[in-house]
Amino acid sequence: MKRILLILAALALWQHWDRVEPLLGLSQPVPSQARTGEVILYATSWCGYCAKTRAFLAERAIPYRELDIEKSADGRRAYDALGGRGVPVIDVKGTVIHGYDPQSILAAY
């Protein structure tokens, strides 16, 4: 029974390592690719939430630079460095937002 609990604890730790690592002080701060005041959208052409993010930024007249992670090698490297696991990823003045989250975008902007 102890062995099963240990395996389950290890699996949970592995699945949530991105949340545990900062608590342990092991993570290095990820350098932001955005210049001061810049918003960068890491996206793909087929992503529905990327389209919603584009529309949200356009409706609020927030200037942004878009990097398609499937077409730009530099965009893909930056996306990976930011811990990208899905799209969209938005770098708002150094604050990284994973997924479509209008409230977080406005708060960071």
UniProtKB/TrEMBL annotation:
Transmembrane segments: none annotated. One of its GO terms (molecular function) is electron transfer activity. GO terms for biological process: cell redox homeostasis. Residues 39-97 form the Glutaredoxin domain. SUPFAM superfamilies: Thioredoxin-like. It holds the Pfam family Glutaredoxin. This is Glutaredoxin.
